[in-house]
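JOB MANIFEST
job_type = single_chain_structure
chain_count = 1
residues = 114
[input]
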Amino acid sequence: MRNFAYISTLMLSFFLFASCSEDTIDAMGTGSLTGTVVRQGTNEALEDVKISSQPASSPVFTDAEGLFSINALTSGQYSIQAELDGFTTSFEAVSVTVGETSNVVFELGYLQGQ
């Protein structure tokens, strides 16, 4: 009988151990962000617009076609800012997904009095 109790306890322990699973936390993946900045009303591409994010990443600047790209952003929610002297600063909320490229378009208007 003692042997039966020992085997039963051992088997029960094995099944409990085998049925337990631990949720692992995947390493944070990365995605990319691309975008365009244009002048409000004319859709003219704006060059040298500073693009920054919160949470912070290295700022980038738009090219002659108003395009920018930020690679290897940790997945999550970001507030993206576009700023250029003489124009209103604009913010957009963006969700970055692992392995995906998100896209955003900014339309900047002139500051009052410009």
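[summary]
Residues 22-26 have pLDDT under 50 and may be disordered.
The first strand starts at residue 30 and ends at 39.
exit_status = 0
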